[in-house]
Write a structure and sequence with these properties.
seven-stranded mixed sheet, six-stranded parallel sheet, globular
């Protein structure tokens, strides 16, 4: 993409965090020019719009060597044509922690003299369940189901992440799921969205500001990727990667009826029946989409799917399922 106003900006590495099981790291970062995007609560529509175009007009750097370090170990990874650094590395980090822990890895651009750290979630030994949640129209009103998706674009372009509102009660609902039943370990939370990686900082700020449980944020590449343009897209693969990384863990899947969350989650439930414990689908105000989703749910009576219209209903179902 073309540089934004100024040429020859400093090159940085943007860590996107990730997760780890007992044997591997699954993380991501990106090498790009520093556009100085900073989210402030005081940002008005003009500054928010400028930040949006800076994010979407990112100038990625391919072929840059990145050093990955943790606990005295070092690996080299070269950024791909979109500037991404895909970290799929084995580790031998012993842990007897019963609860979730956040590991830190260091990323260095040696030729630039630039370093950054990335936070990696590793679920605890006593944790037997996790929540995987969509973001768009599941936790934040985006208008993804609107015609031509114009509402989604307007919201992301002109409203800063501090004034964007989560759907009512969903933060409290997720905190309740995260805490689980009294005496149990906090369950990990993973956020998986079809929003592009360019919006990582925006969405991370939104989730933190509105009190959502901390968890890895896993987005998508807006470049030319044939998998992303299939019916279920790359989102199915991103959710499946989490499920298969923790074969002894059960999962709660949370999404909405705006697009294909229901299709993705039902497919995963059929493929991993011993792991998908329950599915929550938030209803959207679109009759045709709702009819399709309701028929889809009815045709899968053997899978525990709950259609919810508000967070209080989700909370009641979670209690019924003995999740909280």
């Amino acid at each position: 993409m073309m540089p934004f106003f100024q040429k020859n900006k400093p090159i940085i590495i943007r860590p996107y965090g990730g997760f780890a099981n007992d044997t591997h790291f699954f993380a991501k970062a990106r090498v790009l020019e520093d556009r100085k995007v900073e989210h402030l609560e005081s940002d008005g529509a003009l500054r928010t719009m400028m930040n949006f175009y800076k994010r979407m007009g990112s100038e990625e750097k391919a072929g840059i060597e990145v050093l990955i370090r943790w606990k005295g170990k070092e690996e080299k990874i070269v950024s791909d044509r979109e500037g991404y650094v895909n970290i799929r590395l084995p580790h031998q980090l012993e842990s007897n922690s019963e609860s979730n822990e956040w590991l830190e890895i260091e990323l260095e651009l040696k030729q630039e003299g630039y370093t950054a750290s990335s936070q990696i979630l590793r679920p605890g030994k006593a944790v037997g369940m996790a929540l995987i949640s969509d973001i768009d129209d599941t936790v934040i009103q985006t208008g993804v189901a609107s015609r031509m998706k114009w509402r989604m674009m307007v919201n992301s372009t002109f409203k800063n992440p501090f004034i964007r509102k989560p759907l009512q009660g969903v933060s409290e609902f997720y905190q309740a799921l995260h805490k689980g039943k009294p005496g149990s370990s906090d369950i990990p939370v993973f956020y998986v969205s079809n929003s592009p990686w360019n919006l990582f900082g925006y969405l991370e700020t939104f989730l933190r500001h509105h009190g959502f449980p901390q968890g890895p944020l896993i987005l998508r590449d807006i470049g030319v990727d044939p998998i992303e343009h299939t019916k279920l897209g790359g989102k199915y693969g991103r959710v499946k990667q989490i499920v298969t990384a923790f074969p002894n863990m059960k999962f709660i899947l949370s999404g909405d009826s705006a697009e294909v969350d229901t299709d993705i989650y039902l497919r995963l439930a059929k493929e991993h029946p011993d792991q998908i414990q329950s599915i929550f689908i938030r209803a959207v105000k679109n009759r045709n989409r709702m009819k399709r989703v309701q028929k889809l749910i009815e045709s899968h009576a053997d899978i525990n799917v709950r259609l919810i219209r508000h967070s209080a209903e989700g909370m009641a179902f979670a209690k019924e399922l003995d999740l909280i």
